[in-house]
Amino acid sequence: NAGVTQTPKFRVLKTGQSMTLLCAQDMNHEYMYWYRQDPGMGLRLIHYSVGEGTTAKGEVPDGYNVSRLKKQNFLLGLESAAPSQTSVYFCASSYQSWWGTEAFFGQGTRLTVV
Amino acid sequence: RKEVEQDPGPFNVPEGATVAFNCTYSNSASQSFFWYRQDCRKEPKLLMSVYSSGNEDGRFTAQLNRASQYISLLIRDSKLSDSATYLCVVISLYNFNKFYFGSGTKLNVKP
């Protein structure tokens, strides 16, 4: 039962470097999300996807790009990392049904930008 | 204004105590409501959904007041293992399942 898997789990970047975070889910969920969590701020939505090939901006999209070329994968890219992007990043997925839904989370990626 | 607001706590309570958390939400079109639990440095996990009629799961009771736009969580007979951060979550099922999270309420249960 893999569920939602994020890689890497930890990363340290220098300012200006780029990187890609990978999220993979094996539950055939349509919806996928990238959140960041900072102390006292809760989880804030960066980008989300409602299906393969579609993405949309969330609350805090600046400095990030995403792609969903395959239904099971959702990639988050940092083009030019900044110290303000130091955070814990969570990927999540959910299904849609008439009775409701639930968000399933990956284990998180702790990113430090120095 | 934040979509979901919670008292950050911490709530420090002795084992066996009853503790209650509230959360308010701003979007009256919100349709589904949840409480998630997050342990330190771990991912959030679903604790329970919140229904209009209120629902109970063992020592946990969740209630929704749509008129006042708030959600509550009651924990009875607190255990040490209940120590965690509790996140209030609202979504609109007709808005691409966007989940809006409160910043969380920290609970410390002491021996």
Characterize the biggest β-sheet of chain B.
Answer: 6 strands, mixed
Task: Count up the helices of chain B.
Answer: 0
Question: Number of helical runs of chain A?
Answer: 0
- Described by the principal axes of the CA atoms, the overall outline of chain B is globular
Strand content of chain A: over 45%
Radius of gyration over C-alpha positions of chain B, nearest whole angstrom: 13 Å
| Rg of chain A computed from alpha carbons, rounded to a whole number of angstroms | 14 Å
Low-pLDDT ranges of chain B? none
Q: Can you offer a commentary on this structure?
A:
The complex is a heterodimer of chains A (about 110) and B (about 110). Chain A has about 110 residues and is mostly beta strands. Chain A contains no helices and 11 strands. Chain A has strands spanning about 5, 10-15, 20-25, 30-40, 40-50, 55, 65, 75-80, 85-95, 105, 110-114. In chain A, strands 2, 4, 5, 6, 9, 10 and 11 form a 7-stranded mixed β-sheet that branches. Chain A has a 4-stranded antiparallel β-sheet with strand order 1-3-8-7, with no helix packed on it. In chain A, a hairpin with a 3-residue loop joins β4 and β5 (about 40-50). The radius of gyration of chain A is 14 Å and the shape is globular. Chain B is about 0% helix and about 55% strand. In chain B, strands 2, 4, 5, 9, 10 and 11 form a 6-stranded mixed β-sheet that branches. Chain B has a 5-stranded antiparallel β-sheet with strand order 1-3-8-7-6, with no helix packed on it. Chain B has no helices and 11 strands. With about 110 residues, chain B is mainly β. Classes of the chains: A mainly beta (about 110), B mainly beta (about 110). The interface of A and B includes residues 35, 58, 105 and 106 of A.
